Amino acid sequence: MIEVKNISKAFEGNTVLHDVTTTFERGKTNLIIGQSGSGKTVLMKCCIGLFDVNEGEIDFDGRRFSNISDKKKKLIRQEMGVLFQGGALFDSFTVEENVMFPLNMFTNMTTEEKKERVNFVLENVNLLGTNNKFPAELSGGMVKRVAIARAISLMPKYLFADEPNSGLDPKTAERIDELLSALTNKFNMTTVINTHDMNSVLQIGEKISFIHEGKLWWEGTNKEILKTENQELNEFVFATALTRLIKH
After folding, report:
1. Of 57, 124, 190, 191, whose CB has the highest number of CB atoms within 10 Å?
2. Statement to judge: residues 237 and 122 lie in one domain
């Protein structure tokens, strides 16, 4: 479990997060939603440690993560997997080399052990046998699956995904959602997904945190979100769904 306790974050005097308190639960897909500029991306970056909070605390299973030494922070970071928007694969690396990159950086595994782990995670994202392909040879959905394989290669306790469905067609996006949900359950990870995709919210939103103007405005499940009387949330849901219909 990740506990966010009364955190605030400001940039050059402009407060982006205001006294946010929430929890991200183990074994569940925890979704952060909100309009562009609402603060949801800043919240995720604070959880990953890319930004230090100005006030409050962030704890990983009871261990303080905010405002601690880089050495202590690195130990917890080694338990994180991060899926960046767009996949962020190295174009000059093969699939195997991309997935193996964190293993080279953070472990003392033998070459044989690394290859076994690579094949294990590739099998879990249904890409076994693509080891020698380059990103340019893959579809957009396959690129995202390789990125997921890389993110789970260290068998993390915590998985963070920033807009995992960005740039994907609806069917491929649905498969990525199903994959993230299945992996979360299989490996009992605390998964935090930053998204504006209402299909993702309704399909895999076991715990949803709606950020509005830098504040935690609403929390609930994908079943509860359709019954809410929260005006700002309803406006966001309607606007997001309408935008998706226009695009597709």
Report:
1. 191
2. no
pLDDT digits (tens, 9 = 90+) for 227-246: 888 888 888 887 765 555 45
25 & 92 share domain: no
User: If you compute the radius of gyration of the chain from its CA atoms, what whole number of angstroms results?
Assistant: 18
Secondary structure (DSSP) of 176-212: HHHHHHHHHHHHT-EEEEE---HHHHHHH-SEEEEEE
Residues 65 and 170 in one domain: yes
Instruction: Using DSSP, state whether 13 is helix, strand or coil.
Output: coil
Instruction: Provide the 8-state DSSP code for 33.
Output: E
Q: Could you tell me if 54 and 168 lie in one domain? A: yes
- Residue 228 to residue 11: CA distance in whole angstroms: 32
DSSP 116-163: HHHHHHHHHTT-TT-TT--GGGS-HHHHHHHHHHHHTTT--SEEEEES
What DSSP state is assigned to residue 47?
H
7 shares a domain with 65? yes
State pTM to two decimals.
0.90
Strand, coil or helix: 102? helix
State whether residue 169 is helix, strand or coil: coil
State which residues form the domain around 202.
1-79+158-179+188-248
Domain shared by 40 and 117, yes or no? no
CB 81 within 8 A of CB 159: yes
Q: What is the pLDDT of residues 31-72, one digit of tens each?
A: 999 988 899 999 999 999 999 999 999 999 999 998 888 888
Greatest CA separation found in the chain? 55
Query: Total structural domains in the chain?
Result: 2
What's the pLDDT score for residue 25? 95
